[in-house]
Design goal:
By secondary structure, the chain is of the alpha+beta class. The protein folds into 2 domains: 2-200 and 371-459, Zn peptidases (Aminopeptidase, 3-Layer(aba) Sandwich); 203-253 and 302-368, Alpha-Beta Plaits (2-Layer Sandwich). The protein is 32% helix and 21% strand. The chain contains 13 helices and 18 strands. It has helices spanning 2-10, 12-23, 35-52, 127-142, 165-171, 229-238, 261-267, 274-281, 294-297, 340-350, 379-392, 407-415, 440-459; strands spanning 55-60, 67-72, 80-86, 106-108, 117-119, 149-155, 180-183, 195-200, 202-211, 217-218, 303-310, 321-322, 325-334, 360-369, 372-373, 397-400, 419-421, 437-439. The strands form 5 sheets. The protein has a 6-stranded mixed beta sheet, sandwiched between helices. It has a 4-stranded antiparallel beta sheet with strand order 11-13-9-14. The protein has a 3-stranded antiparallel beta sheet with strand order 4-5-18. Helix 1 crosses helix 4, helix 3 (35-52) runs parallel beside helix 4 (127-142) and helix 4 (127-142) crosses helix 13 (440-459). The two termini are 16 Å apart.
């Protein structure tokens, strides 16, 4: 790996400059206003793959945004690693909370990143992380040290549920045939303590609507006499948790796979500072389901959260109205054993029962996905552990992630492959929030580590 690491060292500034160019394109898949920007990003990713030395690079059309594919097949007798990532990003709202433009990348020093971090939407989720793989491949390829075959599948709809990727995977099984899937869309415990995500939570996402009168009403003339959908919706949402932080939907916990006491004891060994955790996100105290630690609440326990709530007048100044409609978007993070379709139906059946007869309630299901667990005995996990231990100088620990990558379970079902979640982000990267950032240490450490994964996977 000496020549590969030398190439990386000599090209670090160029790698960063190219990532910055990619981050400038606002590839927001959720908003049709950015349609051309998303398509332009796909073309840019394809351009970088070609420059890195990938063959048969394609921008593959789907029923939604395209999938960028590329490959380097050096020997059919060698293993094939499929790299998955996504080039789309979350909306940047609220824009006024960004310290610099979300699509105007800047390098700033922080307490956690004294060497600097890239502040931009998508820097950690997931442009910065999948780009590590493109650059690691370039280094292995151009130094003549690529030890096996590699394929890339970079999609543009992860942030909206990967709605087109399932069909693409089912229709391209031979093209995507592989021995292991490598993904960097997760985080490590800290810059000092590497870790590998061995579990992801699943997801059920819904939108709810509460309707009162046919039009907005004067709050003086009608206040106290007609239903207020915003008041009603607030009370309904409040009833979705009990005083112990447990979700009240009947049957919600029926299929939850509980961890053994030994597994929970092992999780408790993970280095964790509650004070640093609170400080990093600016809160004075924590909350959550009674009987579980903060790490457990954020990884092995299911959740229900309101992601947005609106209705009535929210402009400047005052407008005294009772809204005719109130809306909310709600996500439920699921754990192994829970089926997203079943959980969605339980919510659809239960939520309207919390409303008074004076309003009409509608529940609109959106996307979802299964939870995922990777056994630590898996060859891919072992290769990732050796690689991270090599570059960090400290043994990598297995850890459960709290986020969701719904497509991972589909990969195993359709392609028969396990996915190794070897991410390099930090929980302080504030992905999905204003001022998202990705440390330069993390970016370069990922590029440095990935070639060792290939080395150890082939040897293992």
């Amino acid at each position: 790996m000496d020549e590969t690491q030398k190439f990386i060292t000599e090209n670090k500034q160029r790698f960063l400059d190219e990532l910055i160019e990619l981050l400038k394109i606002p590839s927001v898949s959720a908003d049709p206003a950015f349609n051309q920007d998303v398509l332009n990003t796909a073309d840019k990713v394809a351009e970088y793959l070609k420059a890195a030395g990938a063959d048969n690079v394609e921008v593959c059309e789907t029923s939604g945004y395209p999938v960028v594919y590329g490959e380097k097949l050096i020997d059919a007798s060698l293993p094939t690693v499929l790299v998955y990532g996504h080039y789309d990003v979350q909306p940047a709202d609220p824009l006024e909370l960004w310290e610099s433009g979300p699509f105007e990348p800047v390098i700033k020093k922080t307490e956690i990143h004294p060497e600097g971090a890239i502040f931009a939407r998508g820097s950690a989720d997931d442009k910065g992380q999948f780009f590590m793989h493109v650059k690691a491949f370039e280094a292995m390829n151009k130094s003549g040290q690529l030890p096996c075959n590699i394929k890339f599948m970079i999609e543009g709809e992860e942030e909206v549920g990967s709605s087109s990727l399932g069909e693409f995977v089912r229709n391209n099984k031979e093209k995507l045939k592989n021995d292991i899937i490598l993904i960097s869309d997760t985080e490590i415990i800290s810059k000092e303590q590497p870790s590998i995500s061995v579990g992801l939570r699943g997801l059920s996402y819904v939108e709810v609507e509460v309707k009162g009168a046919d039009l907005d009403m004067h709050s003086g003339v009608y206040g106290g006499a007609v239903p207020n959908p915003l008041n009603v919706l607030s009370r309904m949402i409040a009833k979705l948790h009990d005083d112990d932080g447990r979700i009240t939907i009947p049957g919600f916990y029926d299929d939850v796979e509980e961890l053994s006491e030994q597994d929970r004891a092992d999780m408790a060994k993970i280095p964790f500072s509650l004070d640093n955790y609170k400080k990093s996100i600016g809160i004075s105290d924590i909350q959550g389901e009674k009987g579980y630690s903060t790490i457990e609440r954020a990884s092995i326990r299911p959740t229900l959260d309101v992601n947005g709530m609106w209705g009535g007048y929210i402009g400047k100044g005052a407008k005294t109205v009772i809204a005719s409609h109130a809306f909310a978007k709600i996500s439920m993070r699921l754990v192994p054993g829970q089926d997203p379709e079943k959980i969605t139906k339980l919510f659809v059946d239960y939520f309207p029962t919390l409303a008074p007869s004076s309003v009409v309630v509608k529940v609109i299901p959106h996307h979802g996905g299964q939870a995922y667990v990777l056994p630590t005995s898996d060859k891919g996990f072992q290769a990732a552990k050796k690689a991270m231990t090599e570059t960090f100088g400290k043994e990598a620990l297995p850890a459960r992630g709290g986020g969701s990558i719904p497509i991972v379970a589909l990969f195993e079902k359709e392609l028969g492959s396990k996915s190794v979640l070897m991410g390099f982000g930090l929980n302080s990267d504030v992905i999905h929030s204003p001022n998202e950032h990705f440390g330069l240490f993390n970016f370069y450490k990922g590029i440095e580590t990935i070639p060792y994964f290939f080395k150890y996977y082939v040897e293992g």
